[in-house]
Q: What sequence folds into this?
């Protein structure tokens, strides 16, 4: 059985975002739904956990999640055995800096993401003797290991997804050079005991026929829910970029995620990486109701799913 805890469901900045006075952030400050930046934790044995991405809110997420607390009676311990990174955005990697207190764990990431960690000396607070950095490759399944080296029982298949490189590298040379393949990964995550699996795509610019084929029939899909409509940041006066310009598909519209993933026989669909501009965050909004009618969930932080 795989256990999955949603540590956070928000896009970069979280909800509310520190410098945002939009209606959704205001509602979140006055008692409405708050959400930390997107990350999930997974475990096959209920004892050892792997994080998918390490958000800047990781410290708060670890405190709020009893499954990830140190074992009673142990002076130094963490159930977190590893972190799998799907991209190098700040909201996916900055939480690593909150794991610098000497506990051993492994980081699994594409060489393009590892190149960014290496090029930024601040990540050297994670000593390479304690924190092993393991390269992963597109279309090559791997099984993250437990701290004693034994298999975790979790199979992970990374695959390339249409997307963009990290925002802070826009117009700049990537430390790994090359063409961008590997900057944005989706993951298929398998329980090696039961054969059940789910998909994790926190960023995706477009649903291709190939991706539809992959996702068809899945028990569970976590999918990019950054914006409701492509131009919502511009329309709300919050920014100059469309969802597409940031490498994110919209929830709604003819080519949006809701339409693209309809009729694929997916049992459970959960949005993740939801920006604070997205009206589907508001409990009573027409957009939330439309998403729910289409079979999608906007999850609260801390929600656990078993598969
Ligand atoms: Zn806002």
A:
């Amino acid at each position: 059985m795989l256990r999955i805890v949603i540590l956070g469901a928000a896009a970069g900045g979280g909800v509310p975002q520190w410098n945002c006075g939009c209606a959704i952030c205001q509602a979140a400050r006055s008692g409405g739904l708050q959400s930390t930046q997107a990350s999930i934790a997974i475990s096959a044995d209920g004892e050892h956990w792997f994080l998918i991405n390490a958000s800047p809110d990781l410290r708060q997420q670890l405190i709020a999640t009893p499954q990830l607390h140190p074992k009673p009676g142990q002076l130094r311990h963490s159930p977190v055995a590893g972190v799998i990174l799907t991209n190098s955005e700040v909201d996916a990697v900055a939480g690593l800096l909150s794991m610098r207190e000497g506990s051993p764990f492994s980081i699994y990431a594409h060489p393009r993401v590892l190149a960014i960690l290496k090029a930024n000396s601040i990540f050297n607070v994670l000593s390479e003797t304690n924190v092993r950095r393991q390269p992963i490759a597109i279309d090559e399944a791997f099984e993250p290991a437990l701290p004693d080296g034994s298999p975790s029982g979790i199979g992970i298949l990374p695959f390339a997804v249409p997307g963009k490189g990290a925002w802070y590298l826009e117009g700049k040379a990537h430390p790994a050079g090359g063409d961008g393949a590997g900057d944005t990964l989706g993951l298929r995550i398998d329980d090696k005991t039961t054969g059940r699996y789910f998909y994790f795509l926190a960023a995706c610019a477009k649903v291709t026929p190939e991706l539809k084929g992959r996702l068809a029939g899945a028990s569970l899909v976590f999918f990019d829910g950054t914006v409701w409509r492509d131009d919502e940041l511009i329309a709300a006066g919050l920014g100059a970029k469309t969802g597409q310009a940031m490498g994110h598909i919209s929830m709604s519209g003819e080519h949006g995620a809701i339409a693209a993933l309809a009729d694929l026989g997916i049992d459970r669909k959960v949005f993740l990486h939801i920006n604070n501009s997205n009206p589907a965050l508001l409990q009573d909004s027409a957009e939330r109701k439309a998403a729910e009618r289409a079979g999608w969930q906007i999850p609260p932080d801390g929600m656990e799913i078993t598969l």
In short: The chain has eight helices and 13 strands. The radius of gyration is 18 Å. Helices lie at 23-29, 58-64, 90-93, 111-119, 209-215, 232-235, 257-260, 286-293. The CA atoms of residues 218 and 266 lie 5 Å apart.
